[in-house]
Structure formats: structure tokens, C-alpha cells
Write a structure and sequence with these properties.
Blueprint lengths: L6 E4 L7 H14 L3 E4 L3 E3 L9 E7 L5 H15 L2 E6 L3 E3 L5 H9 L24 E6 L3 H6 L3 E6 L4 E6 L2 E4 L5 H11 L6 H12 L11 H10 L3 H8 L9 H12 L3 E5 L3 H4 L4 E2 L2 E6 L5 H7 L1 H8 L5 E4 L8 H13 L11 E4 L17 E2 L2 H11 L2 H14 L6 H14 L3 H15 L10 H14 L14 H16 L8 H10 L11 H24 L26 H14 L4 E3 L9 H8 L5 H15 L4 E3 L2 E3 L2 H14 L7 H18 L10 H14 L2 H35 L3 E5 L20 H10 L5 H6 L5 H16 L1 H6 L1 E4 L1 E3 L6 E8 L2 E8 L20 E3 L2 H4 L3 E2 L12 H4 L5 E5 L1
Parallel strand pairs: 1-2, 1-20, 2-5, 5-14, 7-11, 14-15, 15-16, 17-20
Antiparallel strand pairs: 3-4, 6-13, 8-9, 9-10, 12-13, 18-19, 21-23, 22-25, 23-24, 24-27, 26-27
Helix pairs in contact: 1-2, 1-29, 5-6, 5-8, 14-28, 16-21, 17-18, 17-21, 18-19, 19-20, 23-25, 23-28, 24-28, 26-27, 28-31
């Protein structure tokens, strides 16, 4: 397996395509990364800003430049000796008229060969004999849209096809209804005696019998229809029979036609409870794929296989792995694909990562051939070792004072889960309840478990479930998964208000598949389907309730509100950090170590600034009280609600600490904070939401942001805030340098998100997808052949110090590849009064070794953030003579060390990397 030494993430868009990426390759080589890691680059919906809305996995995105531009990027990478890792999306596709597979499913229903590709519960659409798909795309109730003439039947003369249109949404009509349509339009146009009319009627009569045309015959029907000379004017006139605007007969005719399709058009509000296809979270136009279907897997991976065989793709990052029905099966099939090229020869394994959130104490699942995760657990480990736990407890107390209703994070999370269950994920939950109810009805011993009681039991199970998912397969469940499910069942049962507690034994046996192993005649396919689909549900459920709801309600310390994190977990001691690194070497030494991604809640340096508030808690508490007093005049009242609410106001102050540019405030900065404030409020789903925006509350929120950032109105606040922001910025910079060194030297593959080699003060997406000035980065890199750390430290605000340190660390990794890929990890003892403020460890491989030291908790060394740290560190690395011998500075001049005292090692920087 080709293991990267480092990766650099680029976001590709129509404004930054393959050729733009190729122009950046020389800079990436100079910086020292070994692999380019890109956002998805297969054909996506036109204008996609991110690439995750793929419509065809078999085609390179033409908006990025297509095949020719990709070939140029591939050549540039090969010339530079860089590999390529693709962010691949196996879980879902964008649906609509751009997706040929989806259009085929709408046209033919379950008779479509593509029906097996989408995760559709056909039988759950009511009043359809053969089932169908609910399409909640209408802006108002179906009847209103129909009678207003917003749904229009149209004919495509070039294709010879009929479709219903709702503005720019197209819905194909099943060809087995063409005969009725043709007869109706010819009659309405009074064209039965015209030559074209006779030809049309002959074609209609030929296909008038039920079941005609078949799927295979339909293309010929369309071609013959399109070829009838003079047919278009007749059809266009005759389609007036289906006009619905103020035309009752046309309304009834079109309605009858639509009722005979394999879909049902509906008001968008019905998505909450009625949608019957699995989505990506709650996004209606991203439909879940059944990648477990062999044909779907094969065709989805045609292009991936070709790129691998041509050695144009060296690895994959698998998006949303927990959304798949059976990730174990999928990753095993993927490795089989990689091992055989076009001629069938054996190939080495390729580098594969999974986007996987690991809960506290959860080990990486044993996915075949997977090197590790994308690194969120490492991000949170670094944050928790940098945070000052004593000061963080003072900030927790402040949060309880500011918003006592949301002081208990456990209650906040459960309320978020309830909100998500009742709205965003209600449709998917309904599917699971119906499945479970049908299973229970399959045996006399469980027939009396009513749907309502099963719903409540399953609801309690979901509320108590502690992680993203388990990994039961058709073969059964692991010991660890059974333990998780048993604990969850026990917790749910303790909350049960009924006497029928045996319902939980039934639920447990269904989830573990024991129900079909105890000799009872339950439907094996249904039980397997329920158990595996339940696992698909808990992942999105956790993401929407924890990441996208609870973390926008609980604001004790925003730096800990991160993807894969839990904001109430305590800070880590140095020894606890070492324990995690030792486990990482053993379990997933080649997984990514990320500190920023396209999904993180804020930029990596914005996060370290906010974490630094735990080092100056008393000053922060005092300032927040002053700011709340000064800004109370800007708080609006909206429908009896304070705007912003006290929790949102406090969130904004922390957000500003992270994003503050230390210079004049411009309109762009104000707009960014405004947009973030609205997004965060909607994600929290309390005062306003995406489903039901409160315009008055949001107007008050925007007004508050504008007022406090307007010097003419808020000079006193801005002066006070700027003073504290500069302190937090300096402390944050020092934490960032430690974060960078830990990321680049601890076990794992360091991943660098675009632009983060200088200060990254971005907010959540789309703010973190803003264009990067790579030309400026290249110029700075070229101007600093060897870093002068003292000079760079004196100008830390310009970001050159971070770029220089990044470059030096990446160069070191390339000089010692075996050490960083597979080297050992050993804690290094630190002695002296300040020993707890130093994280130190040693990595070795053969005769090569490095020693790393990084500081934390800087307030005492910087006079609470007012100056660069002094040399008053009272600590020393405890190394025996054998390990001291030959050590030299790996970041600067390279001279041999005379002392291992921290005050000497940290003379210029708060970090040190030594090598033999």
C-alpha cells in the first residue's frame, strides 16, 4: 500500500478546476506534501460548489475540465512525484433531470433496471397498487399547484417523449401511458383524418394493450413517435386537453395521468413524514444508493477502476461510510477491485480512508483494507490536550449563568434528538417502525406488539444510543456491538412506562439478528433488512442531532464544539495524550491527522484562539459582563423573543474572538459574521430554523451584528473587544504552533486543508470554501529559504511563521519516511515545576530517531497574552545519555544541542523537534 507522508486538500469547483489544480502542483511540491487530496470530481449537478451532488460516477465533471484537463493534472502530479487521493461518494447521488438513473426509475418504477440502485421503500406510498416514490418538490399543496397550472404536460419532439414539468423540474411519463395521451391529443386537435393524425393513432393502437411497450420496446416507440412528420403541431395543440389553469376538465385529465405514474408529486412539507426513499440526511435531492447491489457497485466504480488501473489514482477517501448498509462488505469489494487491473493481474492494495466519527472509547471498526479515518478523533485529541481544564471549568460556570436552560448538555442533546426525530428524520424513522411492526406480526408470540408501542420502544432506543452506529452484518453481530446494543436496550427499558417490557427483548433480538436464529419462523429478509437499515439510520441521526443541532445550542466553549467531539469531555493530561498515541500506533498508524476539513465548524486557528480563553477565564468573564451591558441597547424583541437570545449573543462573542482579523473591520467581515449568525441560529432550531425561518428574529440578529461592529455606534465595545482579542490571538498562535507540530509528528498522516498553512480564521462552510491566493503563498514560501524564527515570531500576525514551520516539518517527514510511516512512539519524561505544560515524545525507526516537545497553557509565560513567551520555563527533558547523543535542532540551524532545558529549546519557538 502506498502510504502518503502528508496530504493537501483542494476544493474543486467550476471556478477552480483541474487546470487550476495543476498550476498549484509545483507549490505543493515545494511545500513538501506527497499527495494531493481533492473534493469529488465526478459529474455533479451543474454549478455545484462542492461536488458531493454527483449525478454520474462514470464521468469526470465537465465543469472541472473533463478528461483532457484531468489528463493534464495527472501529468503534472506525475512530473512532481505527487500522488492523488479522491474524495469518493458511494452513499448517495443528486437526483433530478440531470441524473439519468433517477429519471429511468421515475419513468418505469420497479421495472427499471436502476430501481435496485436507489434505497426506495416502494410499498409505503399509499394509494398506488404497485408502489411508487413520493416526490415532495411542490412549493404548495398539490391541488393548489395543479389547478394553478404550475404542473404542465410537455412533449419533447427531438426525443419523442412526454414529461410533466413543474417549473424547472421534469418528471417523465411512463411510455405505457403514451397510447392514451396520443389518442387524447389527436382527438382534442381534431386531427384524426390528417395524415400525421392517422399515423399517431396507428402507433397508439399498436401499443394500446396493457404492458405495452415493454422497457426494451420503449426506445423504439419514442424514435417512431419523433419520426412522424407533421406530428408536433398536432401534439402541441392537443396538449391543451391537459391544461389545468382554470380548466376543470384539463385538471382532471392531467391528475388521472399523474396518478398512474410511478411517483406522486407532493408539497415539500410532506418530506418530513412521508418521503419513502433514503436521503443524505434531510436533503431531499440527494437520494441514498444501494451500493450493496452488485450491478450498482460495478457501474458506480467503472471510472475509479480505470483511473486505478492507469495509475492515475493512488487512494480514496470514502464519504459518509456509516450511511452504507454494510460498510464491511463494501470495503472488501473495493479492495478486490483494486487488486485486479484491466488485465486481471494482481495489484497492491490502495490507500483507503473512511469518513468515520469515533465516539469516546470507540475503536476503529475492522474495515478490510482501510488505513484509518479522516482524523476527527485526532483533531479533538489535540484540542483536549491544549485546553486548560481548570479555566474551562470556570467557563462552564459562566455558561450556566448565561443560559441556565441549556446548562446540561445531556438534556440539550436529548432535546435535539427529539426535534430531529419529529422533523428531519421522521420519514426514515417511520420506515423503520413499519418494518419492525411487520416483523412482529409474523409470529403469534409478538403479534400483540402494536405499532404505537413498537414506535415508542424504538424511539427510546434511539434516544439512548451512544454513538454513530454498529456494524452488524448478515452473518451476525460482534461481541462489542452486542455489548453496545445491550447497554442501550437496558437504558431504554429503564425509561419504559408500560408493563410490556418483553417488547425490548424482541427489539434486541431483531437488532442482533438473534430473532432469525432461534428457530422461530420470522421473515429472514425482513429481519436482516430492519437490522441493517437501523444502522444506516443511527449515523445520520447522530450527525443531525449532535453536530448540527446540539453543538449550536450549547456554547460553553465553542472550541470544543467540533465534528467528532463532545463539548463536556474533560481536557486531557499529557499522560492521557501519550496513551492515545500508543494505541494509535497499534491500531491505525496510517490514518489521517486533521485539524481542519471542509466540514469543521471553524478554522483551525480560530479554534485555538477560542480554546485559549480557558487560559484567561477571569479576564474573559469580566469582559463578557461588560460587553453584555454595553450591547444590551442593540438587542431587539421579536415576537416576544429576545434577538439575539443570551446564548446566541455569547456564541457571537466567542465567534468574533476566533475570526477577528486584528485590523480594521470591513464590510466583508461583517457580512461573514452575519451569515454565520443566521446559519448557526437555524442549525440550533430553537428561535428559528431551516424548515421554519423566523424572519423577525433573524432581522434582529443581523441588526445586532451590524450595530456592535459599527464603530460609530459601538466604539467603546470595539476598543474593549480588540484589546482582549489580541491577547487571545497571541495565545491562540502559540497553541496553533504546538498543534501544528503535534499534527506533523505524532502517529498518522498529517492532512492540510487548503490555505491553512497560514492563519486559518474561517467559519463553517461555505465560509471555509473561499478561494485561496496560492500565488501569495508561493511567493512567501520562495522568499524564506531558511526560517529566521526570531524575526518571524516578531511578525507573527502575517502568518509567515506558520507557513515556514509547515514547510520545515513536511521536509523533515520526506527526509525520514520510514520513521513517520511506521516508527515507534515513546513518551519522554519531563522534569521540573512546568513539566505538565510540556508534551514530549520520541519516535524511532532503525537508526533514525526524533524527539518532539510542544508547550501548552501559555498564559503564565506571556503575561496573559500580552507578549511572546519568555524563557522562564522551569522544565527539562529527561533523556539518558544514549538518547541524548547526537541530537540536533531539526527546525533551524541544525547545530548539536548543549542542553535539554526547555528554556533553551524554546528560545525562539514554543516547540522543538530534534533529530539524530
Amino acid at each position: 500500500m502506498d502510504t502518503p507522508l502528508s496530504t493537501y486538500r483542494l476544493q474543486l469547483t467550476k471556478d477552480f478546476g483541474f487546470d487550476d489544480a495543476a498550476r498549484v502542483v509545483p507549490y505543493l511540491k515545494s511545500l513538501g506534501v506527497t499527495h494531493l487530496y481533492t473534493s469529488p470530481f465526478f459529474k455533479a449537478r451543474p454549478g455545484s460548489a462542492h461536488g458531493y451532488d454527483v449525478v454520474d460516477h462514470r464521468v469526470l465533471n465537465p465543469e472541472l475540465g473533463g478528461e483532457e484537463a484531468f489528463a493534464r493534472l495527472s501529468a503534472a502530479l506525475k512530473d512532481a512525484g505527487l500522488g492523488l487521493i479522491l474524495d469518493f461518494v458511494p452513499n448517495h447521488m443528486a437526483i433530478g433531470s440531470d441524473n439519468a438513473w433517477w429519471m429511468d426509475v421515475l419513468e418505469w418504477g420497479q421495472k427499471s433496471p436502476r430501481a435496485a440502485s436507489f434505497d426506495i421503500s416502494w410499498e409505503l406510498l399509499p394509494h398506488r397498487q404497485s408502489g411508487g416514490v413520493l416526490l415532495p418538490v411542490l412549493g404548495r399543496p398539490y391541488g393548489d399547484a395543479l389547478t394553478a397550472g404550475e404542473i404542465v404536460l410537455k412533449y419533447d419532439a427531438a426525443e419523442g417523449s412526454f414529461s410533466a414539468w413543474y417549473f424547472d423540474h421534469r418528471f417523465p411519463i411512463n411510455p405505457q401511458r403514451y397510447s392514451d395521451i396520443i389518442k387524447t391529443v389527436v382527438s382534442t386537435a381534431h386531427a384524426a383524418d390528417a395524415p400525421a393524425g392517422r399515423a399517431l393513432l396507428a402507433l397508439a393502437n399498436e401499443h394500446a394493450r396493457p404492458g405495452l411497450p415493454s422497457y426494451a420496446q420503449a426506445p423504439a416507440l419514442k424514435r417512431r413517435l419523433a419520426a412522424i412528420e407533421g406530428a408536433v403541431p398536432i401534439i402541441e395543440r392537443g396538449l391543451s386537453a391537459y391544461r389545468t389553469d382554470h380548466h376543470e376538465a384539463g385538471t382532471n385529465t392531467l391528475h388521472r395521468l399523474l396518478e398512474r405514474q410511478h411517483y406522486r408529486l407532493a408539497d415539500w412539507h410532506l418530506a418530513i413524514s412521508g418521503i419513502n426513499y433514503r436521503r443524505f440526511f434531510d436533503i431531499n435531492d440527494l437520494a441514498g444508493l444501494r451500493v450493496e447491489d452488485a450491478r450498482t457497485f460495478r457501474e458506480m466504480h467503472e471510472l475509479v477502476a480505470r483511473l486505478v488501473a492507469a495509475d492515475q489514482l493512488q487512494g480514496l477517501r470514502l464519504d459518509h461510510i456509516d450511511g452504507l448498509l454494510d460498510p464491511m462488505q463494501y470495503t472488501q469489494r473495493l479492495q478486490q477491485l483494486f487488486r485486479s487491473g484491466r488485465s486481471g493481474e494482481r495489484r497492491r492494495s490502495h490507500y483507503v480512508l473512511v469518513e468515520k466519527i469515533l465516539a469516546e472509547g470507540e475503536d476503529m471498526p475492522a474495515f478490510p483494507g482501510v488505513a484509518g479515518t479522516t482524523g476527527y478523533e485526532c483533531l479533538n485529541t489535540i484540542s483536549r490536550v491544549l485546553v486548560n481544564q481548570f479555566g474551562r471549568e470556570r467557563l462552564d460556570a459562566l455558561w450556566r449563568e448565561i443560559d441556565p436552560a441549556r446548562a446540561d448538555f445531556g438534556a440539550v442533546l436529548e432535546n435535539a434528538k427529539l426535534r430531529v426525530l419529529d422533523t428531519i428524520m421522521a420519514s426514515e424513522f417511520n420506515v423503520l417502525v413499519q418494518l419492525l411492526s411487520r416483523i412482529a406480526a409474523g409470529h403469534f408470540s409478538t403479534r400483540d406488539y402494536s405499532t404505537d408501542r413498537l414506535r415508542e420502544a424504538l424511539r427510546l432506543y434511539v434516544l439512548e444510543f451512544p454513538r454513530y452506529r454498529t456494524y452488524v452484518t448478515a452473518a451476525g453481530s460482534t461481541v462489542n456491538d452486542r455489548a453496545v446494543m445491550s447497554r442501550t436496550i437496558a437504558a431504554a427499558r429503564r425509561r419504559w412506562q408500560g408493563t410490556d417490557c418483553d417488547i425490548f427483548k424482541f427489539l434486541r433480538d431483531a437488532l442482533t439478528l438473534d430473532l432469525i436464529r432461534n428457530g422461530l419462523p420470522y421473515s429472514r429478509p425482513r429481519v436482516r433488512k430492519f437490522a441493517l437499515k437501523m444502522q444506516q439510520f443511527t449515523g445520520p441521526m447522530a450527525a443531525k442531532s449532535l453536530e448540527d443541532t446540539a453543538l449550536y445550542r450549547y456554547h460553553a466553549l465553542l472550541g470544543l464544539n467540533e465534528v467528532g467531539g463532545e463539548p463536556t469531555l474533560p481536557g486531557l493530561s499529557v499522560s492521557e495524550f501519550h496513551d492515545r498515541m500508543v494505541r494509535r500506533v497499534r491500531q491505525s498508524p496510517h490514518g489521517l491527522t486533521a485539524t481542519a476539513t471542509h466540514d469543521t465548524k471553524r478554522g483551525e486557528d480560530a479554534r485555538t484562539r477560542i480554546l485559549a480563553l480557558s487560559e484567561i477565564p477571569d479576564l474573559w468573564v469580566k469582559c463578557v459582563a461588560e460587553w453584555r451591558r454595553l450591547n444590551t441597547r442593540f438587542v431587539a424583541s421579536a415576537n416576544g423573543k429576545r434577538s439575539p437570545g443570551p446564548g446566541h449573543e455569547y456564541m457571537l462573542y466567542q465567534t468574533l474572538i476566533g475570526a477577528w482579523a486584528l485590523g480594521p473591520i470591513d464590510k466583508d467581515f461583517v457580512r461573514r459574521i452575519e451569515d454565520y449568525a443566521i446559519k448557526a441560529a437555524r442549525e440550533g432550531k430553537l428561535e428559528t430554523s431551516w424548515l421554519n425561518p423566523d424572519g423577525d428574529y433573524e432581522q434582529g440578529l443581523r441588526g445586532f451584528v451590524r450595530a456592535i461592529l459599527d464603530r460609530d455606534q459601538s466604539a467603546e465595545f470595539l476598543d474593549s473587544f480588540a484589546s482582549l482579542a489580541r491577547r487571545a490571538a497571541l495565545l491562540g498562535v502559540l497553541n496553533s504552533l504546538s498543534q501544528l507540530v503535534l499534527k506533523a509528528t505524532m502517529p498518522g498522516v498529517p492532512d492540510f486543508y487548503q490555505g491553512t498553512e497560514t492563519w486559518d480564521l474561517s467559519l463553517v462552510d461555505p465560509d471555509n470554501r473561499r478561494p485561496v491566493d496560492f500565488g501569495a503563498h508561493q511567493a512567501v514560501l520562495a522568499a524564506s529559504a531558511e526560517p529566521g524564527w526570531v524575526e518571524l515570531a516578531s511578525h507573527w500576525t502575517d502568518g509567515r511563521i506558520k507557513l515556514a514551520l509547515t514547510h520545515r516539518l513536511l521536509r523533515l517527514r520526506k527526509e525520514l519516511p520510514a520513521l513517520f510511516c511506521d516508527g515507534t512512539y515513546e513518551p519522554v519524561e519531563v522534569t521540573g515545576p512546568h513539566r505538565d505544560q510540556i508534551v514530549a515524545f520520541r519516535r524511532s525507526s532503525g537508526h533514525n530517531r526524533i524527539m518532539v516537545a510542544a508547550a501548552r497553557h501559555f498564559a503564565g509565560r506571556t503575561d496573559h497574552g500580552t507578549r511572546w513567551p519568555d524563557r522562564g520555563w522551569q522544565a527539562e527533558l529527561s533523556l539518558d545519555q544514549r538518547h541524548r547523543q547526537g541530537l540536533r535542532d531539526a527546525l533551524g540551524g541544525g547545530g548539536q544541542l548543549q542542553s535539554l532545558e526547555i528554556s533553551e529549546l524554546f528560545a525562539a519557538l514554543p516547540v522543538a523537534v530534534l533529530r539524530n
